[in-house]
Amino acid sequence: MITNIAALLSGLVFGLGLILSGMGNPAKVQNFLDFFGQWDPSLALVMGGAIAVGLIAFRWAKRRKTALLGDAMQLPASTVIDRQLLTGSALFGIGWGMAGFCPGPAIMNLSTLTPQVWLFVSAMLAGMWAQHLWVARTNAKQV
Q: Which of 15, 46, 79, 82 is in Cβ range 3.0-4.6 Å of 21 for a Cys bridge?
């Protein structure tokens, strides 16, 4: 029960941060990426703050054996920069630049009932499903 409450509170804080920073507004995101047009550098501060908090949190988490609620700490173990990572990063960046959304803000914007947002989230979920099938197929061939 406490884990669910912590997850809910974390999601609410994350959503509030998206709203206050403007990350939920695709036009603001696209203007940040438009260096030769209506460039809006304000999201660089948001990203810089998020990176700083993340660096501190991950450094602290690496020294712990358990998470705050007692579960085993699950941190990424791989440091390999491979084709899968680069391809995924490129697809994420292309989607973010074209639509102005990444997964969190897109899901948050479903409440607006805007058809474009629903189309984006549907395409995102289809891509996640296709990737899941691809990995399952690839792993089955290796066995």
A: 46
Q: Under a CB-based contact definition with an 8 Å cutoff, are residues 78 and 72 in contact?
A: no
Would residue 114 be called left, alpha or beta, if left means φ above 0 and alpha means ψ between -120 and 50 degrees?
beta
pTM, two decimal places: 0.71
Tokens 């696209």 locate to 30
SS3 131: helix
CA distance 25 to 137: 37
pLDDT recorded at residue 143: 67
CB-based burial of residue 132 (10 Å sphere; 0-12 exposed, 13-18 middle, 19+ buried)?
exposed
Domain ranges, ordered by start, for the chain: 2-142
Structure tokens at 94: 């292309």
Burial class from Cβ neighbours inside 10 Å (0-12, 13-18, 19+) for residue 117 reads buried
Where the chain has pLDDT below 70, the residues are 143
